[in-house]
Structures are given as C-alpha cells and as structure tokens.
Amino acid sequence: MGCTVSSMHERKRPRMGLNTELLDLCDDVLGVICGNLEMADLMQFRRVCKRFLAVSKQTFVQLDLSSLRNVKSSVNVAVLFPHATTLKIANDAGFSDDDAKKVFQNIPHLEQIFVSGSNITEMGILNISQHGLQSLDLSFCLKFSDISARILSCQCPNLTSVALSGCKNLTDDGLLALAKNCQNLRALDVSCCSVMTEHTSKEICQHLTALQELQIDYTLATDTSLYHVATNCPNIEWLSLQGTRITTKSLDVLSKFSQKLRRLSVANCQCICDVEGLKFPSSLRSADFSGCIGLADSFLVKLAEQCPNLESLQLWLVPVGDKGICAVAYRCIHVQQLDLRCTFIGDSSLEAIAANCHGLRRLNVSSCLQITTRGIRTVLHKCQQLEKVIVRWLPMLRQEKLKMPSRVMLSI
User: How far apart are CA 144 and CA 159, in angstroms?
Assistant: First the structure.
C-alpha cells in the first residue's frame, strides 16, 4: 500500500502544539512535567504507559498527601515515589513508627518532612536517618521527648528548619542536644514546650548563631532568656514571644542587639506596658501587640516615630484610641494590614488612615463601637489598594448607605 508502519502511527497519534508529541519528549522533560503535577494528575500520569511509570519513579517529586485522611493510603502512595523530596501527611492521620519505617526506608532522599500530629516515638525517629534532610515538622507529636530530640540531632545534623510546637515532653535538655548538633538551624518553632528557661537559654542560643526565625510562644522564656537570644543570634528576622513572661525591658534589648528584626509578635504578653524612653528595633516591618492590655496611645506614638516602615500592625484588644492610631497613620504610610478590633477608635482614625495609608490592603475594625458609616465609606473610596474590610459588630454602621467598590470584599 506504500505506507510504512511509522507513517501509519503518525496519523493515529494526535499532535500537540508546535508539532511536538508528548510521547516524543525526552525523559528529562517528562521528569520536569511530572515534578510539577498535582497528586491526582501525577497518579494519572503514571498510568499512561510503562515509560511514564518509570519516569515518575525517578523524578524528584513533592508529595502532598494531606488530603488523604487514611494513613495507610498515604503510606502506600508515598512508597511509589522513591525519589520524592518532600512528604506531607495529614496531621490527624495517625502516622506511626511502623509507617515511618516503611516510608523513610523506601524514600531515602527526602529533604522536607511534614508529619505533625503523628504518633511516632523514638523508634520512629530512628528511621529518619537522612543526612540530606533540611526541614522537619513534628508539631504536636505528643510522644516526642528529649530522647527523640537527641536521636534526631544525631540522625539529621544538616537540618535548617525544625517545628516542634506542642511537643509537651520536650525540655531544655532535648533542645540543647538539638542546638549542639544542628548548628545550621535557620528556623525553630518550640512553642508550647517547657523550654527556654533562664538557666539553659544562654547555652542553647550560643549554638544557634545562624538562627533567623524563632517561635517560643507560651514557653518559659523571660527577659533573661530573650537577652541571650538577642546577644547570641544577631541574624534574627522573625521573633514570636506570644504569651510569655517578658516585660517592656525586652523591647529595649531587641532595639540594641537585633538590627535585622523585621517581624515581632508579643501578643498576650501581659507584662508589656508603656514606659519612658522606650525603644523599638527600627527595622520592624510587622508587629503584633494583640492582648497587651497595659499599652496606651503614647506607646503607639513612640512606635510610629521609631518604626516608620511598618507594613503590618495588630492591636486586637489593646486599649488605644484615635491619638495613637492617627500617629501611626501619619508616620507609617506604607502600612498594608491593620487589625484594630476592640479598640476605642472612631471615624477620625479612619479618616487619617484614608488620607495617608494609600497602600492599605486589609483592615479589621470589628467591635470598634464608635465607628460610623462615614468613616468606613471614607476608607473604601480613598484606599485604592484595599482588598478586604472586616466590620462586624458595628452598631452605628448602615450597610445600605455604603457604595462598595467592586475590588473590595466586605465582611460583616
């Protein structure tokens, strides 16, 4: 018939754009495609042919299995990809020591592991013998202990990010072992753990000089602990101290030693109050003082003067009024997010914000009982970058009198 097998094959197979057929792509290109697929599409990709199956096994994929609520299903899917670099399991799936053994022995090149809320013990940690592991999230793994921390520090010395929040059996002994052996740590979250006491915080921080992000919310940290953090960790950019016993003295310490600090959260620190000569880190871009009921307008005036480049400010339940917020609006003109819930501000604050903070994107003024329709309307029409406004429980607001711009989502 004058027609070769190859020409017949070409007529049968549909062509893609730019005259390129998917099956004609080299394995390297297919690997790139495979590595960027969602999990459902990745499973379909494997079923196309034996070649695609082989490519998927050799590709460094990121496995997000958090949508699978059954841990057995997650484990069975995970072992299909021995070259996976990232593994994320649902935090309530009941990931156990046996599951850890099966997964980590079959996937030796993992760089990121997210198994928060799992049931693994020291035996499970023993199976994480991956020297290339960089990021590990074991938050709220209630069986994680000081022994687990020691094993982990020996098994994975190259860790750069560790999240152990809610591991209530972790104490300073385990954290010290982790600090000594994992000195490349850049991010550490040990919130809600019995750590950072005055006696051992200095030794811990002396080993974490590369630290950039530290979350020690609701720990045993005090002003002394924070002094050791500030003096030993000069590269700190994000510091969260929510619910700790620190006082205003710590803010002065941070202003002297933490010149790179950009994000600070001291929410619910009841000992934070306004004092004469108070100093703030001038590098601050985001600050959260929510629940600090000892603050007043004079505190915000000082903050605005010393931190004019603030982009985010949270003051939920802080007893401040128009004087403080107007000072922020006049000096912090680059602010993009404001959480002013349950403060004592009125329309004059909103008018100052509208006149000066043209880059504002998110505003929450819920339960600010003195705000009226006029103030909200002014913000809506003058802040052209505004994306979302939350105005719940405002008794003097009349929604029917608001002319909503199409770009803004209003939550009432």
Answer: 17
